[in-house]
Model the fold of this input.
Amino acid sequence: MRAQYALNRPNAPALYDPPLCDQSCVTRSSMPQSRMIQSDPLHQKPALADDVPPGRGRRLAIIHNPVAGARRNGFFQSVVRRAQALGCKVDIKETSAPGDATWLARNISRDQADIIVVAGGDGTMNEVINGLSVESPPLALIPTGTANVLAIEIGLRRNVEQVAATLAWGLPRPFFPIQVEDRLCAMAVGIGYDAHIVANINPRLKRAVGKGAYIWQAIVEFTRFPFKPLTVATKDGVAVDATSVLIANGRHYAGRFCFAPDASINRPEFFVCILPGRRRWDLLRYIAALGAGRLHRLRDVSLSPCDEVTINLSAGEPLEIDGDPVSGPTAALALRIRSADHAFDLIYPDAPDIP
Done:
């Protein structure tokens, strides 16, 4: 049943805590930096202009990836129309090639928009945050991608009423990304089995069947994963061997899979999951446990909060960031990953309808 949103009240609820993991008229801009906050996990001060009350004239600069949302164009258009009905002013900026979202985000100022809305998936969000500066507006989401991990993390469903209400009424909370060398990561980094899946997936198949493409590629990679050794070292000098490493700043990974129940994107830290197994049976155990939300409970799996690690890997090993492969093989054999120096303001749902 859909939740009923009280959209006309002036004191609509602003913030909420995300759910715990489940343990069992439009203008289009031609192609031609969210305000960051200091690393304070308790920061909850709204970053929206005082003279732009929620739901009444809020200016939305929507960076739309039509490829990520090709199968959900109807949902996107419905959200836009509903946001307009709630008083929002909409400017859609469409991407046409990789890197466009970064360029667009870099050129949207607070004089032009109150919120930068990312209409796409986790890869589009990754491009956008890498184009932001300390002067950029807060971020919001229209989830039209395949996994939409960040949307799931904050309780934002693919529901027209809820998403439009969030754009009109939601207020910001801090969102701490991960720094991978000189690049920001919104939610997740994978090295090993996960990275091999992402690096070798067929883009046409992904556009056609969505998550089904990942399932197929997971089967293919299961039969040929090489189990190359990795070493994960903390800044204190402690080193642990692994064959796969998953890193995330939130509770979910690769969709709705429960990864780290104690994680929060509102804190300047991330969780490192070390998978040491060297047999296909081990890989099968890890896959089944992740699907059941119990990966962190396996005796041979290590899951720990960190603010900095260095991963030593073999030359040519793939790397995935936010569900997209890093171009070419990894250049750095010692990959430094740390908490970002600043947080972005991310608009949370006003009245979530969570199952």
